[in-house]
# Entry
Amino acid sequence: MSKQTRHCFLLLLAAFIWGLAFVSQSKGMDYMGPLTFNGVRSLIGAFVLTIYLCIKRKAEGEKVRKLDWPLTIKAGVLCGLALTTASALQQYGIMTTTVGKAGFITTLYIIFVPIAGIFFRKKVPGVVWLGAVMAAVGMYLLCMTESLRLGTGDILIFLCAIVFTAHILLVDKYAPQTDGVVISCIQFTVCGIICTGGALLFEHPTFGQLAGGIGSLLYAGVLSCGVAYTLQIVGQDGVNPTVAAVLLSLESVFATIAGWVCYKIGFLTTDQTMTARQVAGCAIVFAAVILVQLPAKWFERKKKEV
# Structure
């Protein structure tokens, strides 16, 4: 197996883990409040990444990268505030919508990121606008009911995708200047502290609740926050960015399949079945996400040939 094939597999595994994380988030709500779940899983994720960083730095020895700590802490705190907001919206939203819909709506950040370039005076390619129109059509089919009403959970997940867009732009700004893994560790710590503080004030969690949802917490904290993030970092090394983005986008597909399977076997009590119209909406949203990630030069070449 070549290095590129192996790394593509790691990215696919990361997408699979993230897809199933939507199931663990939904199941976790059977035992505790959204802030409690987010707080504990973020602290677990920070702990896992701290271990990873210690091992990595020890292995690098004298070659370890020197960091601008004031800048790194600033980046981690800002990313942590954005992550706290996005994850809270997502967790509250997933309480009243299906796992599959949450997965597909969340991936809209891939389309929102290039559109956000308008605010930085960057030209937005025509293909991005086409993707945005396709995403809007897909969202209509996926979320709108016969009474033309958008569910509260869907609105919260949509807002979550917008905040994740801001989060990605922050990471894009600061990651090249420092260590992305350190930023992630700090952001999980910030998110964990804020959400845990909110949980103690408003949700009053008990050890019984944490014990009941320990499986979901460990999956979301260790695998989703810690392991999958590391797989992404390792997997993207030497892999075409477009291929990497497409593979990671499959988390929405995995979320839909996992949600349906878990409902059928009784692991989830909320009906995760989608109508033919909603499946068509998912397909259009996914096609839009893939279209936006294709290199602009592909379309320029086609234009020149015409």
